[in-house]
Structure formats: C-alpha cells, structure tokens
Amino acid sequence: MPDLTTSPDPRRWKALIFIALAQLMVVLDATIVNIALPSAQTDLGISDGNKQWVITAYALAFGGLLLFGGRISDLWGRKRAFVVGLIGFAAASALGGAAVNTGMLLGARALQGVFGALLAPAALSLLAVLFTEAKERAKAFGIFGAIAGAGGGVGLILGGLFTEYLNWRWTFFVNIPFAVVAAAGAIAVIHEPEGSRNPSKLDIPGVVLATLGLVSLVYGFTRAESAGWTAGSTLAMFAASAVLLFAFVLVERKVKAPLLPLRVLTDRNRGGVYVSLGLAAIAMFGLFLFLTFYLQVVRGYSPVKTGLAFLPMIATMIAGSTQIGARLMTRVPARWLMGPGFLLAAAGMTLLTQIDLDTSYTTVVLPGLMLMGLGMGTAFMPAMSLATHGVQPRDAGVASAMVNTSQQVGGAIGTALLNTIAASATTDYLKSHAAGAADPKLLTFQSLVHGYSTAVWWAVGILVVAAGIAVSFITAGHQGGAAVASGDGAGAEEAVPVMAH
C-alpha cells in the first residue's frame, strides 16, 4: 500500500488536463453520432432496422466491458491502460470515419466501446490516486465532473456543426487529435503512485459472467424498444441477464481475487451513489433524445441551432459542478448536495413537460435546461468523488468502473425505456384524436409533443426517486480532512465527518 504521507505528485494538475480531455472525448462520443446518424444512414444505405445499432454497438461494448476495463487498469497500472485505451479509441475512430458500408461502421463503433471501457475507468481512478488531499480532490473532481456531465451536450453541438458544415465522418475523425494530445500528455506528465497496482490474477469467470450479464441487460432494453416489452426475445434477454448477474455475485463471493470485490459494492455510501447516478442517467439521456427530436422535427431547428440550444445547460452544469459542488463538498455531506441537486434538475424537467407546438425557447426551454444543468452539476460532482473515496488504491479502478457502468447502463436503459413510453403515448393520442382532426400533419406533431412530454414526466419521477435514494442511503459526512486508507469501507458510514481514502 502506498505511503500516503508522501508529498503529492507535482505534475498532478498538468495530468488533470489530459485526463479531462480523454474523458470529454469518451462522453461526447455517446451523443455526437446521434445528430450525424441521418446523414450517415443515407450515405452508407443503412437500413432502418440497423440504424439503432450504430448507437447500440457502442453502448453494448462500453457498458458490458467497463468492469473488465476497470480491473485491467488495476492490474496493468492506470497509466498504461489509459494510454492503450486512447490509442485504440483513436484507431477505432479512424476506422469509423473511413467506413464504406454498414458492417465497417458498426464494427468501428463496437471497437470504440471496447477501448472506451478501458479508458474511462483508468481516467477516473488516476484522479482518485493522484489527488488525495480533500480541497485539491474537490477541485479536481469538480473539473472532471463538469466535463463528464457537459460532454453529452458538447457532443450534440459538435455533431450539429460537423453534419451541417463538413460531413458526418468528422464526428469520428474529431477523436483522433483529442486522443493523440491526451496520450502524448499522459506519457509525459502522469506518474502513478508506487504500490497502487493490484497484481492479483484476473478473474476470468467473473469477466465472462459480468460482460454477458450487462450486455444481455442493455440488449434487453434495446429489444424492448423495437420488439415490445412482452416479446419472447425481450423477456429471454432479461431472464438471461438476471441469471448471469446472480451467478456473477456467487462467483465473486468465492474467488480469491474477484473482478468486483463485493466490499466495493456493499459499502452503503458507494451503493447509494451507484444507484442514484444510474437513475439520473436514465432521466438525462432520455431527455437529451426527446429535446433533440422536438427542436429538430417539431420546431424545425437546424442541427447547429439544436446543438447551440443546449449551450446554456452546459454552462450551468459547469457552474454547478465547479462553483457549488466543489466548493461545498468539503463542508457539506454529499447527500445534501446530491438530493437537492437532483430535485433542482427535476424542477427544470417539470418546466420542459410544458412544451407545445409553439413553445417559446426563452421562457420555457431555456430556464428548464438551465435549472437541469445546475442541479445535475451540483449532484454529479460529490457523487463521483464519493464513489472512489474510502476505496483502497488497489480497488480504485474497479470502483471507478462502477461509476461509469451505472451511468452507461442507465443511459442505455433511459433511451430505450423513455422512447417506448413516448412512442405508446404518441400512438394513443393519434388514435383518440384521429376522428375530428382537420389537419393530419398538425395532429402528427401534436401527438409527438404529447409523447415527448409524457416521457419527460416519467424522467421527472425517476429523478425524484434518485434524490430520495441519495438522501436516505448516503450517510457519509463531508469529504474534508486528511485521507486515510480504509480496509473494506465498513467504517466509512459511521458519523465521522472524514471519509477514508
């Protein structure tokens, strides 16, 4: 175990620049392709049935392999995992940008997901082992949290700009300079603390069960969207996922060097963070999708204008993360930042349920997005820090992977779940109003808007549940004071203001 009294790495702030750059690249990749998808579909002749796979191939590989990636970074060393992840991600992006047919594009997206699953946990766990002093940790996680939260919105803006002024292929090529700069910087300035690796053997049965279980879960939700919730294939996927993940827990209890040590999960605070972050991701990713469709299809915004419409949310998210979350997390317990943060975001979403055919951007959409950004920024920051706080350095990679896993799986579930709710609400509205409709096109738009606002109401409810879980499960004090290594996190929930590191 590292001697935590040694002086911190003098190059840690430079390291943060490159870690944050890599995180931005991974997060924006989840949304940048959404706006470019219609152009890519036309260009490569992708069928409607295969269209969703451009998004799903990335989500499945990324969500399914995150725990494996986290453990690899604990075994290999975070710096090596980080650099390999960056180089692989750049290569996969080059392949996607040069795609000449559907298969090549889908393969590139899956490869991006594979290397993203290595890169994302390595980035977060590097932060966890480089920044151990409370105030510095708060500042570093504030910057990282702001980027992690705002990256999706940045992806929408860049996707719009590239699609409108260049070509959809640039939504892939843009990753190459990001990755090259981040890898070169990492090689030059990142120095991993001695003794923070976990040299134990890799738990192969755990890797297989966790990967297949998570892939089945994400794919089950994707099937539900296209085939329906009660279709045999959907139910089979959910059943397979439940069996595989249950078997995974049994294996982890028995093996000597588990992929996911259950001590990481059973700590009440970390468990609360993972569940509430997953729920928040369900609400947020679903909303991004509907608002993008609403602005482009119903209001007729161009891709660039749609992307720019999200800018104020990014600004308030960065403000919430760096000015509220980072400043208060060393003085206020995490639950009193996360709970109110999620409720503030829910209030912003409640405004967005009021959208209509001619809703004013300035009076409804803008304040809704700003409140949502402020709330999410305030909540994400202490959550990401708390998820890796109190973890032994040898488990930092896998604890970081769980944060990413809850967000990725939440995002995939949110897109499928809320899409299904919106689609059935749209159909019901169309059927019930078809008889007296004078203008069929107008009715179609009214039905779409009704579907969107119904789904956003569900997202509001999900955020309220996330706030309730954060306040009731997370009992840790504020994340101030000196950091001390804790054995299994068991003592972390006692009423002490200092959380162990």
Quick gist of this model?
The chain has 501 residues and is mainly α.
Description of the molecule:
This protein has 501 residues and is mainly alpha-helical. The protein folds into two domains: 12-202 and 257-493, Up-down Bundle (Growth Hormone, Chain: A); 203-256. The protein has 17 helices and no strands. It has helices spanning 12-44, 48-76, 78-97, 102-130, 134-165, 170-173, 175-189, 204-227, 232-254, 262-266, 268-298, 303-309, 311-328, 335-352, 361-387, 396-433, 440-473. It is a multi-pass membrane protein. Pfam families: MFS_1 (PF07690).
Radius of gyration: 22 Å
Q: Judging from the principal axes of the Cα atoms, what is the shape?
A: globular
Number of alpha- plus pi-helical segments: 17
Strand content: under 5%
Which properties best describe this structure?
single chain; 501 residues; mainly alpha; Growth Hormone, Chain: A; 17 helices; globular; disordered N terminus; disordered C terminus
Outline the secondary-structure elements.
Blueprint: H1 12-44, H2 48-76, H3 78-97, H4 102-130, H5 134-165, H6 170-173, H7 175-189, H8 204-227, H9 232-254, H10 262-266, H11 268-298, H12 303-309, H13 311-328, H14 335-352, H15 361-387, H16 396-433, H17 440-473
Helix pairs in contact: 1-2, 1-4, 1-5, 1-7, 2-3, 2-4, 2-8, 2-16, 3-4, 3-7, 4-16, 5-12, 5-13, 5-15, 8-9, 8-16, 11-15, 11-16, 11-17, 13-15, 14-15, 14-17, 16-17
